[in-house]
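Internal ticket - ligand job 208, calcium ion:
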Amino acid sequence: MRKKLAIVAVIAVIMVSAAGAITVANMPDAQGNVQRYEISNMSCFYDSMIAQSTVSSLDADGEKEIAYDDGSAEQGFSIDLFDVGHAVLFTPPTKLWTLKRVRVYGLCNVNLSNVIFALEIWDNDSNLLYKLTDYSIAYFNTTSEWTEIDIPDINMTDDFYVCIFERGSIYVGADTGNPKMRSYVVIRDPKGMVSEEGFNWMIRAVGA
Ligand SMILES: [Ca+2]
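stdout (structure tokens):
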């Protein structure tokens, strides 16, 4: 018990001291005008305690997990903006594939735990396929771990995005080893994706 309390305290200190800012790219809007998105209220944590691989063995129903991260978070970021979030582009392993669950590595920001987050599944043309909203604390723990979010089955025939809009309430893990160019900062209005070239969001898709 004493050891567990000590670990929680260390995480809290690191989160507060590592607040930072990040600027994402220029994006053309629908009229072709270049817009600049500066995410000044993006904060991060450094999670030096996570090193082990966390790929889970899946059951015998033929389920597969699509992962573009290595299972260890070197950093994590929270975006305190309403319509800006984290997204990963997934390619189904087979032509007909059913998305069943989403897994996110991260932790709930204890100061904003009653904020509503949104999980959105977008198709390859940024059309909304599914949306789930709930209090962040209802799904995410206050220490970093994998959170599994069950969703209704969605049949996929093409690439799709998993988007998390957390409004400052969740630090999403970022794996900096071998970026797979699958991670984006997603903007809802106007819809857009800004590629993240330095890390992989730790967001995974499970299906069959
Ligand atoms: Ca890593």
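Auto-summary: Residues 70, 72, 74, 175, 177 surround calcium ion (CB under 6 Å). The helical segments are 2-17, 136-139.
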